[in-house]
Amino acid sequence: MDFVSPVLDVASRICNCVGDRADHLRRLPQNLKSLRTEMEKLNNVYKDVRERVEREENLEKKKRTHVVGGWIQRAEAMENEVNKLLDRCDEENQKKCFGTCCPRNCRASYKLAKMVREKMDAVAELQSEGRNFQEVAVPLPSPHVIERPLEEKPVVGLDSPFREVWRLLQDKKVGSIGIYGMGGVGKTTLLKKINNKFLQSSIKAFDIVIWVVVSRPTNLERVQETILDRLDIPHDRWEGREEERKAEEIRRVLKTKKFVLLLDDIWEPLDFLRVGIPPLGDGNESKIVFTTRSADVCVGMAAQKSIKVECLEEKEALSLFQAKVGEDTLNSHPDIPKLAEMVAKECKGLPLAIIVIARAMASAKTPEEWERNLQKLRLYPKDVAGTENDLFSVLAFSYDSLPDEATKSCFLYCSLLPEDYQIPSEHIIQLWIGEGFLDEYDDIQETRNQGGKIIQMLKHVCLLEVSTEFIFQKSEYLKMHDVIRDMALWLACEKGKKNKFVVKDGVGLISAQEVQKWKDAQRIALWNKTSIEELSEPPHFPNTETVIGRMTRFMFPSGFFTNMHVIRVLDFSNVELRKLPAEIGNLATLQYLNLSGTRIQYLPIELKNLKKLRFFMLDDLFSLASLPNQMVSSLSSLQLFSMKFFSSPSPVDEIMLLEELEQLDHINDISIMLTSIQSIERLFESHKLRRSTTFLQLAGCKGVNQVQLLSPSCIKELILVMCDELEEVKIIHFEKQVVPSKFPNPQCCFNYLLSAHIIGCKKLLNLNWLIHAPKLQYLYIKRSKIIAKVIEDERSEGSEIESGLSVFSRLIYLVLLNLPNLESIYGHPLPFPSLRWISVWGCPRLKKLSFDSSICMSKKLENINGQQEWWDGLEWNDQTLMHNLTPYFQPRGSPYNVKITHLVHPITSP
What we know:
The structure is a single chain. By secondary structure, the chain is an alpha/beta fold. Helix content is 35%, strand content 15%. The chain is globular. The chain starts with a helix and ends in a 19-residue tail after the last strand.
């Protein structure tokens, strides 16, 4: 019996093995079918992942992650392996014994069956991985250097310092280089030339070139954040963290790189360790180059080499001066070229002064004008101790050449803005009007036009500059060069002798002792986290006409308004202000009050005592609970009232507010947001209100399926937002509906409408009424699901308005976002002679652009942006037009890559 047990055990094992193999062979047909099915599923997952990767790589300029890249390779390899295995199985299936289903080679068939089972598991695992990718691509690293535009071309007189700085950058013994010189001498231009030199492909000595504008006052946090962004360090690692944590992140990355740090416009020594910049030397070949006006800063920052940028030589200065004056003026009389040499010499070779004076002289076409102006220039003192005074004595000539006191006052007023601040032209004009600089005209629009002319004049003589950082600007953004600003403050303070203009930017808490020094101030401007400590007694501001507090955390000290006997302007826009003291009602001379963007809940009833108030702005008051009854109607001098972009539902009785506005004798500029059909009807039934309303926003408007706008109207900007049930907008004139297929007389349409925003109006069918807006410049349509055509074909039978203006002939910016049914803009091609920018995103059915061949001839077009697949899918009747427009196209992965903040208020953002 002892030999029986082992025999039975072996027999049992053989049976189990045979049974297991037989089970594999029996299940093989079903497993082959399952493998094919699972492979199809894997292919679908592969396609989805591949499409996501390609979309983010092509449109968003990202790079696939290593994990995803590896998965794609494994999925592709798996497909090849499975196909080969299936082919082998098909071959083996053909080799069965004749007349049976039994394989000829059981061993080979078993191996295949086992491989099929294993591949099924591997395919399923790959599917699971592919379905669970949260991220398939990451942003590409920033380029090692970003080009900086040079405003003055060709660059004159900087070859020598450029060669010296570049030589030092190659010197391994030199780590830090300071560039210094007077304001306006070309230090920033030189630094830009150095930055751009690194763009040359042959220069690969450094991993990254970082550009930071430091400016005044030094803001360490801003410097750190600029560097952190440039290093592509994720925001969640540093945003909202303390200074030391940000410094650690910067140091951690820079220690691993060979970098060049370019710091422009430093006014005081910067502590590199606090910023997070690792020490130079000890084998680290990184470089730091900075610009400053003071040689002392070079010493304080331990620059190993300091280079002074000198003024231009006479020949270089004359060349620059002649280029800026222009050949037309130089050739207008034989004596002028010689006089130009004499004027250029008076500029002392300072590039900024040369440019400013040359622009001022560009319109002088007779020798007599040149001689008079040259004599004026020579009257200013020369060789005054102190670089700034030498500069100001030259630059002040351009100020004294301004035609009148109003223009001079407007220019000096701009010095109240902080350094590098950019302001919309319409905002600065409004402040000028509030100050009374432009009281020549009774009509507010005429006054604005006069302000626009002054801006053009100040730009022409280079006392104001236009910012190029904003693309969709309804109002151009202005800035003042810091040297010009310093000169303007010097003049406003009577050449530094009096403290008439007080400007504080980002200085934190101001002491009571400091405030006491402002008793002679005419204008006070507090910016960016500047506040005043609690005062033991009310401050005395007997001569103060202006107080501006913006982007600050302002708590009014007790009695702050008590001793302001001549105050005209109070601007507290975008201040964290929750309460307004009742004493503000005692400011009998106040004419301009801006409380926009504050957190005020209740306005004091005492505001009704401001009988001279002409401008009252209450925009963006999302915390406002109500308006005091009869307050607005008590402001008997009010000309401009603005209350837009507040919370919905409306915190005010709109009907009552409109009735109070109607009672005002001088009102002629109203900006308002309405939320009900009753309010809209009340507005348009009043001739005064209709004539005075320049900005109208209709928000929410529940239950409204049709809006009737009475013509003629003075509305310049119209916003329809989140009117979910609105289907149609009609123009009504003298109680009669305008026939849609005919263009009305200019007096019977929206002749003043410049901007229209249509956002979230889900049932709106079309915008046919826009044919009655011949001067429309900005059109923004977003999330309106039903619109198929902006203007329907049958509405576009005539292409000319009776005034002679073509449809959309003034249109500058066109934005179309998330319009799934949009098929066309207009019934047939149009020239769009003014169009600069068109942005299309989320409009898959828009296959044709309503452009005719003349659009490229206007030379106005700058940019077409949208999704690459949308552009590739466009249909063209004229292939030449496609080729001409293609260079203007810039693919965008998201509509929010475009800076459009001034077109769409935050209330409309998703």
